[in-house]
Write a structure and sequence with these properties.
alpha+beta, 307 residues, four-stranded mixed beta sheet, 4 strands
Length: 307
């Protein structure tokens, strides 16, 4: 982790082989503005400016946003950010979910698509991107539809390296999303939207285990679902794979993808993975995986909620 935003920018600029004047030109600013940033006198907070900086420096924009938030001390006054991260990460990693009951893709898909269609029927019918962050205002409805049997809370926190975590505490499910990830999800960032849906998948698919206190589940940016498997275990026992499958199906329900396909045909546009990703505000990787799973249904014309 960087000590400050100015250190992050300076080191990223050096890695990119840019001088201050060249970076200024790429982001449409003056050299003096870049100098002030690297001296700690300026900290941009506009998303559009941070996005331009991220592109020029070849870094993830969420890294810049996260450092701005850390510099502004947006965390508990009585607990240092270092203590929060160390205590929180160790507590989670000790109980990380490693194994789950076998679950087929079809079974996961059915639950995810049913929730999407019940929560946002018009959005799904129109083939539009699912407003996953709006679930924050409909938690009771989500809880009832998912048959959780306990309240659900979504919290954001700026003082963690984890993108998201899911726990059961004090009689309720708690989904914690890094505040920068939540902010990017609200702006339509595909990876961030996927993270939110992924954590909701843990609640829906692994609620019984969470309530029993057998583990806590979390998503991070280092390990893949396969790498988190115990030796010689099949992928369909991976909680991460299961939650990834849930997220893909929830963000791209079959009926919504079929409507998008029909719209492409009506407008004489080419149906592509890139177009699918852009239409549903997901990453190209997530779109490709979901399209591969959906293709038999699309060809057969059976894209309603799977039976």
């Amino acid at each position: 982790m960087y000590e400050s935003f100015r250190q992050l920018v300076k080191e990223a600029r050096t890695r990119a082989g840019l001088n201050q004047e060249e970076l200024a030109g790429l982001v449409g600013k003056t050299k003096a503005w870049i100098v002030d940033i690297e001296r700690g006198k300026v900290k941009p907070t506009e998303i559009s400016v941070l996005q331009e900086l991220a592109r020029a420096l070849k870094v993830d924009v969420s890294q810049l946003i996260g450092q701005v938030l850390r510099d502004r001390n947006m965390f508990r006054d009585d607990f240092s950010v270092e203590d929060w991260e160390i205590a929180g990460e160790n507590r989670l990693r000790e109980q990380e979910i490693r194994d789950a009951e076998p679950m087929t893709y079809k079974a996961i898909e059915e639950r995810a698509e049913a929730l999407a269609s019940q929560l946002f029927p018009t959005v799904v019918a129109d083939g539009l991107p699912l407003p996953v962050t709006r679930i924050l205002g409909r938690l009771d409805e989500f809880r009832d539809l998912a048959k959780l049997g306990a309240p659900l809370a979504i919290e954001t926190n700026s003082a963690t390296d984890l993108e998201g975590s899911t726990t059961f505490e004090d009689g309720r499910f708690v989904v914690r999303i890094r505040s920068t990830v939540w902010a990017m999800a609200m702006l339509g960032d595909g990876r961030s939207r996927f993270t939110v849906a992924h954590e909701l998948g843990h609640v829906v698919l692994h609620g019984a285990e969470l309530k029993a206190g057998r583990f806590q589940a979390f998503r991070d940016s280092v390990c893949t679902a396969s790498q988190k498997l115990m030796p010689n275990q099949p992928i369909y026992r991976s909680p991460e794979w299961q939650s990834n499958s849930f997220a893909g199906a929830m963000l791209m329900p079959g009926a919504a993808v079929q409507r998008y396909l029909s719209r492409c045909q009506e407008l004489d546009e080419v149906f592509s993975v890139k177009g699918l990703a852009e239409n549903f505000n997901v990453s190209s990787q997530a779109a490709a995986i979901r399209l591969q799973k959906l293709l038999p249904r699309l060809v057969a014309g059976t894209t309603g909620q799977p039976r």
